[in-house]
Amino acid sequence: MKIIDRLKKDGIHISFEVFPPKTDEGFDKVATATDEMAKLDPAFISVTYGAGGGTSKNTAKIASHIKNDLGVLSLAHLTCASSTKEEVRSVIKNLKELGIENILALRGDIPPNVSFPDKDRFRYAYELVEEIRKHGDFCIGAACYPEGHVENDHKEDDIRYLKQKVDSGVDFLTTQMFFDNDIHYNFLYRIREAGITAPVLPGIMPITSASQMKRSQELSGTVFPRRFLAILDRFGDSPAAMKQAGIAYATDQIIDLLANGVKNIHIYTMNKPDVAAAIMGNLSEIIKA
Ligand code: FAD
User: Fold this and answer.
1) From the CA of 110, how far away is ligand 1's center (Å)?
2) Alpha-carbon distance 12 to 250, whole Å?
3) Which residues are designated catalytic?
4) What is the Å distance from ligand 1's center to 289 Cα?
5) Which of 17, 88, 9, 24 is nearest to 55 (CA)?
6) Atom 17 in ligand 1: residue holding the nearest Cα
7) Is the separation of the CB atoms in 206 and 267 below 8 Å?
């Protein structure tokens, strides 16, 4: 089933995310995490694509396990900057053979040691979207950035390029993590004004440790509101307390989104079924209301 068809159904849709193992030995551990997450009845589970493309085989394997063994919709991420066009085509072919119907099409970060742009590589995600469309009837998701993508000085440019990407064949969008919902509401207003009508899944990252906050900031360039910084200041040195506070903060963000009419939410669960379970437990009645 395509994710876009699931999102069109009534009710609240909450999805999770895992990252693939770096080595084949790590497969069972990640598969077990997905088994636990599947019990929470997510709308789908997405599987990231390792920077550099080195773990592409494991992305496909985990996505196939989720779909074919667990009966849960899976979304395989695919990046193109770190691979040649031919390599990307062979990954798409493999996903098709495994019966994966949903792909999150990404450019990925530009690797430091390759010539880029280059005629043998797709330059932007929209080119990858066009390519995937040539290979079959996939449901295609793409990334968007409520605080703007780090490479763009102006949000207007980012939104213009986002429109081009969506128009090239994107079915839905997932946002970069954010910690202040007003940023998301503002972004939604701007993209709807720009004529982008695709469903947008806000990406919520439960921050459960001080080190994770640092990593998230480096990755996304996101702004942490004072309310979050106070939590970190008070509980950052107590792992159990920080975890509980991080789960509560993410829950609070989700409740606010749902209260404001958002129906689809993606949680960056990062191979942590206990965190996914805690949040879903906090929402058990809310998602039925
Ligand atoms: P694009 O949409 O191509 O945009 C890249 C930059 O180019 C932006 O600044 C954009 O405004 C600009 N741009 C786009 N089109 C044009 C144009 N025509 N002319 C000029 N400029 C243009 N990374 C991974 O390695 N693996 C993952 O699994 C992964 N998953 C992600 C999931 C989500 C939901 C998000 C938000 C990000 C994810 N990333 C992942 C990170 C992502 O790969 C990086 O943020 C990357 O730098 C941009 O990818 P993109 O697909 O958004 O690129």
Assistant:
1) 10
2) 16
3) 17
4) 35
5) 24
6) 161
7) yes
